[in-house]
Design goal:
The chain is mainly α and 159 residues long. It is globular, with a radius of gyration of 16 Å. The protein starts with a helix and ends in a 5-residue tail after the last helix. The protein has two domains: 74 residues, RNA polymerase sigma factor, region 2, helix turn helix motif (Rna Polymerase Sigma Factor, Chain: A), CATH 1.10.1740.10; 66 residues, Arc Repressor Mutant, subunit A (Orthogonal Bundle). Helix content is 74%, strand content 0%. The protein is built from eight helices and no strands. The longest helix is centred in the first third of the chain and has 23 residues. Helix 2 packs across helix 3.
Length: 159
């Protein structure tokens, strides 16, 4: 892929990919590394992609890199309290209700959290989510509905 194409993709999608990686990995620092790896891979590989599907392609690459990163043995097992405090500051601009919704989302199991995030926060269709997560469209619908039901229980005081 040409450098100009990678720069264009970076300008268009880096922020969305970063937010997705933060939700997926739970860490701003890990998300930065993951997004950097995705764009470095684009620079280094002879990637063939359809321009009309570039956003889905990039999210799929990011999801795969997140899975690889979370599985890797080199991932830190300890918790850096200063890092946690810094990451909490990232979400300080949320009002109380949005924070409660976000907290409930982050408390969900991965299988429910990621489809809900991709649909409601990133704006993907069920078909695109199925492609990104490598599951069927019906599984996406079921996971979103079950995740919303679980979130509703935790958010009863706000309803």
């Amino acid at each position: 892929m040409k450098n100009e194409d990678v720069v264009r993709l970076f300008d268009a999608y880096a922020d969305d990919l970063y937010r997705f990686a933060v939700y997926y990995s739970g860490s701003k620092h890990d998300a930065e590394d993951i997004v950097q790896d995705v764009f470095l891979k684009l620079l280094g590989d002879h990637v063939e992609y359809k321009p009309c599907k570039e956003k889905t392609y990039l999210f799929t690459m990011t999801a795969n890199r997140c899975r690889d990163y979370l599985r890797s043995a080199s991932r830190k097992t300890g918790v850096d309290l200063e890092s946690c405090e810094n990451e909490l500051q990232y979400f300080d601009d949320f009002n109380e209700r949005n924070r409660a919704v976000f907290d409930e989302l982050m408390n969900l199991d991965y299988q429910f959290r990621m489809p809900i995030y991709l649909h409601y926060y990133a704006g993907y269709s069920y078909k695109d989510i199925a492609g990104i997560l490598k599951i069927s469209e019906s599984a996406v619908a079921v996971r979103i509905n079950r995740g919303k039901a679980l979130m509703k229980i935790g958010l009863e005081e706000y309803l």
